[in-house]
Amino acid sequence: MSQLTVTEYSLKTLCAGQGSLDYNAIQEKIATHFSVSGTELNRVLYNTEHFAVVKLSGTEALGSNLTPNSLVIAITSVRLCRNYSKRDCENCGKLHLCRRFIYDDCRSSKAKKPCTYSHDIQSPHNAAILSANGLHNLDIKELRQLLLQNDPTLLPEVCTFYNKGNGPFGSCSFKQSCNKLHMCLQFILGACPHGNQCERRHSFLESRELLEKRRVNIELICDLPTVYRNICAIRRWESADEKEKGPQPSHAPSNPASDMESEEICLFFLRKHCSFKDRCKLVHFKLPYRWQVYEEMWKDLPNMEQIEKDYCDPNNIGRAGPPPVNFMTMTSNLSKVRRLSTVSSVTKPQHYSLTTEWLWYWQANTGEWIEYGKPEDSDIVSVVTSTDLENLYLADSKEKMVFQTTKHRYIVDFEAMLQKNLILGTCREIRRRPRFISEQEMERQIYSKGQGKDSPAPVKTVPTHWEMSAQPNAGYKLISVSESSDEYKQVQSLFQRTMRNSVIRKIERIQNLALWEVFQWQKEQMKKKNGGKEVLEKQLFYGWDSSPVAIICQGNIDWRICGTHGEGYGKGSYFATDASYADNFTPTTSATKTMFLARVLVGQFFKGRENYCRPPSKDGSYTNLYDSCTDNDSVPSIFIIFEKHQIYPEYIIEYNNKVGFMKWMMEIFSGRSASAK
Description:
The protein is of the alpha+beta class. It has four domains: 1-141, no CATH class; 267-346, no CATH class; 358-434, Signal recognition particle alu RNA binding heterodimer, srp9/1 (2-Layer Sandwich); 468-664, Alpha-Beta Complex (Phosphoenolpyruvate Carboxykinase, domain 3), CATH 3.90.228.10. The chain is 27% helix and 18% strand. It has 20 helices and 24 strands. It has a six-stranded antiparallel beta sheet, covered by helices on one side. β13 and β14 (418-421) form a beta hairpin. α1 (3-16) packs across α6. It is globular, with a radius of gyration of 29 Å. 30% of the residues are buried. Residues 57-64, 243-260, 449-460 and 672-677 have low confidence and may be disordered.
């Protein structure tokens, strides 16, 4: 029995046990196969090439002794090759495997054409790498677990800004368009002190759209809590290990990959009002772009505005200098070059300024670069715009766009940066370049009209009929609606259209500014997704039990908390056009009942099915989904909403049916008569 044999067995056991086991569990499994002392076992498990040892909560690294409260996690330096699909890497030391295969989402066996990328972990190239790293005895499920919790390119990282501040998105400025995971970090680590009362997400299903863009299927999503716990524990273990090593000698060259904590320039700093100041994780710079060269550390390049101007021209593959820059390889002489910039404009509302507007071009026969969406001779540009391409590129750069013109059918390959005519077979190069903005133009945008575009229009968010003097700084306020007002009569008319045997006791308006702003943001995103067309919005009824209404007033209608009120058309929140349907879900034993009238963004809808956890796809892709489901395509009476940000609970209606109301009045009258005697 050798130490190597025990190491390989331990690694395989951990990968088969969801990537980690507590010390007692791994000790028992090893003891059934090998006779090793505690000292020998410690020596094996403290091999930092294969194992990370942390406290069970994952909050801090351990000392020199393993204890029953230790968590042993499988780690590796092996990664998937990102250039494998480009066929331009040889002997790279990384695995050549289909990424969708690692996500267990490649259906090559059912497809008409087999997958063009390898599914063979024992190919000569892959077998050599696995053997060199002591992983040759892992099967695909075990290797998949190991890679998911160690390769940072496979799963989105947890958004640290989401875990700071208040509100539905914390302090994350990207909100719903963030390409990082919005999950409660304390919940992932198994130590959220707020439990079910926590405002942050505790379910990976709420982030399924982001995960499915990465091709993570629903079965794998269910296993993610353990995977992410391991990922977070490994990161903290690595951080603790770096602290123990202390500062490195100043003459040691740093790694350019590790020296770029962020490549995004802070929009708020450009506007002179970043509240995080030195604690901000984004780059603080005077321009919305920044060109740097790596010479033992990242250094700013001179003539930065001219470099940016040259780069924005799609005709240029580089510039002679000074300094010389190759835009295709992003190098200057033999040194690496990088371009930092503000966030892409498609991820922010249109009123934001100083975002980076990326333009997409294709090369005509004449050699001219033509921007998509411009009225040129070709019918290509009239169908697809730069915004269309940018949205899909950011969603998944490996996704291919297929579009049809009046003459031909095309496919855009983002990895190869080519546009191919599927009828003629001809290929054309495409390029992605930003729209140029000078420092003078930037200053004009900031100071024109006394405010930047990144400030929302002052009349945009708050409805005119709200009583803002009664609006709290945070949370919500219930405002009683006067019976003589048009507002009351409108709600009353909608309610009594199908509830004539009921008596309204009172109607209250819910004023929750945070929920309203999120609702408006969601409407804007759906409008952009719909090609600028207005989103269908309805006033719909939602029944409520005797639970405190504060649950909805504070946190919105969420089917994971409030219940589904039906499952025949999908697992979501059920809303009705008729109040009589919602009345079925209020307690029958109570004299006074409660019902909500909500604004709902139903958008484009499709008939639901019982097994739906989200609206179905319009075209089979992962990104082009319907907005909601319904019971009937032509004459819908029920709408199923899966995303709570499509809902704003606007009114609370308290009511009695007439029989219950008369009984209630008799009880009051009897009580008064008895007291009079």
